[in-house]
Amino acid sequence: MAAPCPEDPSLERHFKGHRDAVTSVDFSPNMKQLASGSMDSCLMVWHMKPQSRAYRFAGHKDAVTCVNFSPSGHLLASGSRDKTVRIWVPNVKGESTVFRAHTATVRSVHFCSDGQSLVTASDDKTVKVWSTHRQKFLFSLSQHINWVRCARFSPDGRLIVSASDDKTVKLWDKTSRECVHSYCEHGSFVTYVDFHPSGTCIAAGGMDNTVKVWDVRTHRLLQHYQLHSAAVTALSFHPSGNYLVTASSDSTLKILDLLEGRLLYTLHGHQGPATTVAFSRTGEYFASGGSDEQVMVWKSNFDAADFGELTKAQRPPTMLAGSSGNRPEMEFPIPPGRGRSQESGQSQPQEPSSMPQTLTSTLEHIVGQLDVLTQKNINESSI
């Protein structure tokens, strides 16, 4: 059995303070804050600086289902089962404005890259677009015939993609407000969807335990992964475009290498379903949340060679027939409550505790550096 390598992802910190399942996580653009939403009806804004007090924002009358920072980091949007969207100023005051967004649970909120628009998705079967600063309703997209779980803008803001319990993923043109294409390959509810950083591909996960990647120009199915043993609850592209992280009700996170079409790592951190996962804006870290009420921050490590690539054009995934992921991978069991530090959302911040080497049981390490990636050593930026 090989010992963990420096390139392996590592659990850096726990954040504890939610009183029910965590539903959503998002890093601020400057990496100084991490927001999380929960079934406990609260948002938490955690500070990445050690021993800093977290902010608890109360305002929603029911479960918070989604959170998203604006591109500037000056605003934080949240959606709730109380049918509203709130826009918060993520500081100690926690001031927010609220608007009645939908006639049912709001499942998803996402800012456009220019910060001017917000897209929301709801159990009322609609996707709605709003003016951020005026918080004014602009238009609705209404072709789904069941709950809409997720909606995201493309990186250039011209397209919107949505995922629904009607088993489809729909691609919309923001200007014409028309559905450009419906992707119908999922065999069950589609829980999450997002754009590749290049804007040329989308990835979606669903209740059929699969992840699928399509080209939005040709609408071809590029990759199909059957890796999880339960529903895929969330996914996030690394900003280089070379990796995808997924979260699942089977309690694991999985890291996929999109260029080779294979599974790299399986991470066992959460006790119970993993409900959300998101990379930081640089990709140096990713955060996850679960039904165990915990928020975990992981250091990517495996992407060190990609930091020099971020200023270059991202490479979209290529066509890989039958990307089943049935190749060797790294397994990381993380004992509950163990991390390099623990942070508390309670009244008193806890002292950080050191993490002994808990990643002791690993499979044979076969992951080599890809030839297409630069081999320069890039200094990792500090938190």
TrEMBL record:
SUPFAM superfamilies: WD40 repeat-like. PROSITE patterns: WD_REPEATS_1, WD_REPEATS_2, WD_REPEATS_REGION. One of its GO terms (biological process) is cilium assembly. Pfam families: WD40. Gene3D superfamilies: YVTN repeat-like/Quinoprotein amine dehydrogenase. WD repeats lie at residues 15-56, 57-88, 99-140, 141-182, 183-224, 225-266, 267-299. One of its GO terms (cellular component) is ciliary basal body. The keyword Endoplasmic reticulum does not apply. Residues 309-361 are annotated as: Disordered. Residues 337-357 have a biased composition (Low complexity). It comes from the Eukaryota. It is found in: Cytoplasm, Cytoskeleton, Cilium basal body; Cytoplasm, Cytoskeleton, Microtubule organizing center, Centrosome, Centriole; Cytoplasm, Cytoskeleton, Spindle pole. Its main location: cytoplasm. Keywords: Cell projection, Cilium biogenesis/degradation, Coiled coil, Cytoplasm, Cytoskeleton, Repeat, WD repeat. Plays an important role in centriole assembly and/or stability and ciliogenesis. Involved in early steps of centriole duplication, as well as in the later steps of centriole length control. Acts in concert with POC1B to ensure centriole integrity and proper mitotic spindle formation. Interacts with POC1B. Belongs to the WD repeat POC1 family. This is POC1 centriolar protein homolog A. It comes from Pteropus vampyrus (Large flying fox).
